[in-house]
Amino acid sequence: METRKYKKLIFFFSVNVLSILFVNAQEVLPFPPAPSASKAGVTIETSSYKKRTEPKHLPADAPNILIILMDDAGPGAPSTYGGEINTPTLSRVANTGISYNRFHSTAMCSPTRASLLTGRNHTRVGNGQIAAIANDFDGFSGTIPKSSATIAEILKDYGYNTAAFGKWHNTPEEQITSKGPFDYWPTGYGFEYFYGFLAGEASQYEPTLVRNTSYVEHPKTSGGHDYYHLSEDLADDAVLWLREQKAYAPEKPFFVYWAPGAAHGPHHVMKEWADKYKGKFDDGWDAYRERVFKREKDLGWIPQNTILTPRAASMTAWADIPEFEKPFQRRLMEIWAGFAEHADFNAGRVIDEIEKLGELDNTIIIYIWGDNGSSAEGLNGTISEQLAQNAIPTKIEQHITALNELGGLDVLGGPKTDNMFNAGWAWATSTPYQGTKLQGAYFGGTRQPMAVSWPKGIKHDKTPRPQFHHVIDIAATIYEIDKIPMPKVVNGFAQDELDGVSMVYTFTDPKAKGTRRTQFFDIMASRGIYNDGWFASARGPREPWVGGIPKGIKQWSPLTDTWQLYNLDQDWSQAVDLAQKEPKKLEEMKALFLTESAKNKNLPIGGGLWSTALYHPEDAPSSPLTEWTFDSPIKGMPESAAPKLGKVSSVVTMDVEVPENANGVLYALAGFSGGVTCYVKEGYLNYEFNLFEVQRTKIKSENKLPIGKVKIEVESKLVDKIGGSMNVTLKVNGASVGQGTVPTAMSLHFTSNATFDIGTDLDSPVSLDYFDQAPFSFNGKIGKTKIVYLKKN
Fold first, then answer.
1. For the segment 229-276, what is each residue's pLDDT rounded down to a tens digit?
2. Measuring CA to CA, how many Å separate 57 from each of 25, 31, 148, 192?
3. Name one Pfam family in it (predicted).
């Protein structure tokens, strides 16, 4: 009797398990392969053959998907919505679809991209700040966990071909060498094809590029021209991929993520594009805001009762800019405008190709104007934008003097500068809002215009969608369109719940009640919380347009920050602070912010500041090595994984065979916008520390190098702390041949996307002394190179 009961229980248990697996099969990805439809006997004669059929997991008319994500572009820039930057491609999408005027980013690039691709809040997926300053706190680790699968991973498993082009910036910095590991590269996150750059920015003329998991050289030309530009190259490559996808797998829909480096610094564009804007901004940023504000209202893009927010007291008025400086400031804005329009034009080339292939009618195009607002990191206007990242204060006269030595205003926008515009222009292109990029407290940093078109599925309507939404909502929207239930397990990893909500309900009804009731924002303690029409925010310890180390930063505490409160139903632009009038509401919102922060791993408040130049630059991501031995010359080693020669005390020892008429680079780190190089010129040993173009420290040996086998040493010793002065000694065969002091060393990095080379300088050349001879490869032989970090005394 007991045996029969036991067997019965096993039977019911087995049936229940099988039924659960059957019902929930779609909750585990990837799908299991289709079983054979043939039956094998002992011989072919006793076997039956039938070709297996892979089941379709998508609706028969599943749309193609194209996401276009611009970089560092504020809401008051595009002509589509009242700005003065010509954006015909954005207008094309808007004029065939719908637009959103209360759509939001995180205020910073890596966080926004991680949120967009996963549908989760940025700190919940470890991206509380950019990957270059990641740290050990869970919310700020710089690594998207496999428990939060990307859109690409899920769509690929359901039958899409997937590809990404352009800026990535979601791979741990120390893992971007050619040897991986590749788990956290685009191809490890579901993109079957990737072409672009892994870092936060790149020179548009000399980028370090990756195709899938291999570093590759960029073409010599792009866009059908006799020159090269990265935005054009990214469009060229996307067009080719689309053609091949149509030829090889016409039955499969595609998902393309096209994210150029524009209009992020450095602002690089050909002169003819910048010249289209000559004279258009001569009256400055304050006047720009007035004009755009009126146009935004005239277009109905913002409500008629919107208030134009004032300029911050710490930001310079255009009227206070000296006359001798204004041509420089105007040209910086003309270049940015041309750069942004050029990127929009190349996005149009991708759409043109989709149309030529006959796929436009059933392609959803999601065009997001900016992963955050326009960047104020150019501070007072700069020829080398990494100065701000390293918290190095400068005066505008230094930039203009250095620029004049390079050739004057015509050099701006070209390969000899890493220019960025004055923060005043970033503020202007954020009209009508307060703030810029890096400010989660204000919509100038987070509010991104978005256009969505899908001729087959969305009827054009020019009425802006005013529902409050966020980049985390894109994934849920795509999944609803494709009828994809959120899987419980992907590639063996149990999945975190989505934070996003679908926006499909807005496609047909611009007046529908918004479904996103709460959203928190926090970038480096510039923070805010939205809830049912209210918004509370705290500016945080710094303003991104104020250079150097903020006063009192070491004593700053989030517990003593001043908070502001806005009723967004009555105050579109955060112009009227109600904190004093509504103290109970403010306390309620502050408590909600802490609740959301705890839920989303956003603790400690300000955790993203840990590894910056403001606090602990020694903890910024870097190779775990403190000693390297290169048995032969190496090239193309990413700066993020290379020895930090301009940051820490070190000794470089090289075995070199010096020929007659010796010339060439012995080693070079980074590029023309900032870096360290040691080279031989006409037999003399030379060292140069290029501090972001505004200060160059040069040391030259007293005598020529002896011919034959020579041991060369470059000893660099910090006098005090990271970012301070550095003593440098050149030695040949143990004897000192030159000494000098670098007044200001580097705190974080020289560039985001350059490399370390031995025996050549393959990036933009570090030194002007061999700029015209680049890559200036050494004409002798280099044997072993050893680099060792020196211990502190």
1. 999 999 999 999 999 999 999 999 999 999 999 999 999 999 999 999
2. 11, 9, 21, 18
3. Sulfatase
**Are the beta carbons of 546 and 424 closer than 8 angstroms?**
no
- Summarised one tens digit per residue, pLDDT across range 451-489 is 999 999 999 999 999 999 999 999 999 999 999 999 999
165 and 196 in contact (C-beta within 8 Å)?
yes
213, 183 contact by CB (below 8 A): no
Question: What distance in Å separates the CA atoms of residue 160 and residue 156, rounded to the nearest whole number?
Answer: 5
Q: For residue 59, what pLDDT is reported?
A: 93
Q: What is the CA radius of gyration of the chain?
A: 28
Would you say 669 and 764 are in contact if contact means Cβ atoms under 8 Å apart? no
Give me the residue spans of the domains in the chain: 64-376+424-516, 627-789
Query: Which tokens is 48 given?
Result: 């039956």
Please count the other Cβ atoms lying within 10 Å of the Cβ belonging to residue 650.
Answer: 22
686 token code pair: 């030379």
Which amino acid, residue 380? N
Q: With bands split at pLDDT 50, 70 and 90, how would you rate the model's confidence at 24?
A: very low
Tokens of 198: 């892994």
Mean pLDDT of 296-301: 98
Does residue 709 contact residue 655 with C-beta atoms inside 8 Å?
A: yes
Amino acid at residue number 623: S
Query: Cα dist. 715→397, 653, 728 in Å?
Result: 32, 9, 6
Indicate the CATH number of 64-376+424-516 among 3.30.300.110, 3.40.720.10, 3.55.40.20, 3.40.50.720: 3.40.720.10
Q: Whose structure tokens read 């603790």?
A: 603
Mean of all residue pLDDT scores within the chain: 94
- φ, ψ of residue 630 in degrees (nearest 5): -110, 110
Bridge partners (DSSP) of residue 78 are: 85
Fold exhibited by the domain 627-789: Jelly Rolls (2.60.120)
Burial 712-734 (b: 16+ CB within 10 A, else e): bbbbbbbeeebbeebebbbbbee
